[in-house]
Write a structure and sequence with these properties.
Blueprint: H1 3-24, H2 34-44, E1 52-56, H3 62-69, E2 73-77, H4 81-90, E3 97-100, E4 115-118, H5 122-139, E5 143-148, E6 159-161, E7 164-169
Parallel strand pairs: 1-2, 1-4, 2-3, 4-5
Antiparallel strand pairs: 5-7, 6-7
The structure holds S-adenosylmethionine.
Length: 174
């Protein structure tokens, strides 16, 4: 096998490996459908300049873009360095959008956070809920949580539109 072919095969294997490994920690990369989300967001929760939306597992940044176009600040947490790099490049001229290449379970939300978005697989939805509850307790403020495709077992949604569920997660009193 020629040397350049070998390099290309190794690069492809590395990229496939990154996507496989990151998909095991929360969800595989499947982007939200922008048009449907824009429609749902209008019904669920109007965003504005006082909002900071965090997308847990931000993919290529479609949710960050919608949030920023609604006037909000948007922060993506994305474990996959290739996707995090795409977001960084895509939004390099949009100061409202930023990204951190991290595992979202190990990320402390900034105090201005108001809304959390997640499109994760079913088994991750309860751990994500507990993470948001912990952060709401720490920040001592309610956080809105928009979950795509999966609902929570023990919390009633404030609203539902299409495949999206809106929850209000309030700090627990001890
Ligand atoms: C279903 S996609 C959703 C992408 C985007 N939020 C959207 O709705 O278009 C899930 C994303 O989460 C990322 N991811 C999975 N586990 C993660 C973790 N523990 N921390 C950060 N990102 C994670 C994956 O790499 C993938 O890009």
């Amino acid at each position: 096998m020629a040397f350049p072919t070998l390099i290309i095969i190794i690069l492809i294997l590395i990229v496939v490996g990154i996507f496989l490994i990151t998909s095991l920690t929360g969800a595989p990369y499947v982007p939200t459908l922008r048009k449907d989300f824009e429609k749902a967001l209008k019904k669920l929760l109007p965003l504005g300049k006082d909002d900071l939306l965090i997308d847990l597992g931000a993919g290529d940044g479609v949710i960050l873009d919608v949030a920023a176009k609604n006037g909000a600040k948007a922060l993506g947490i994305e474990l996959n360095p290739i996707l995090a790099g795409i977001i960084r490049f895509r939004f390099r001229k949009k100061p409202k959008v930023s990204v951190k290449c991290k595992n979202f379970y190990h990320f402390s939300f900034p105090k201005e956070t108001t809304v959390i978005y997640a499109f994760a697989v079913g088994i991750h939805i309860e751990p994500i809920y507990h993470k948001i509850q912990k952060e709401a307790n720490r920040l001592n403020k309610p956080l809105y949580f928009i979950s795509n495709a999966f609902n929570l077992k023990d919390l009633k949604p404030e609203k539902k539109s299409g495949t999206w569920f809106l929850y209000k997660i309030t700090p627990e009193k001890h």
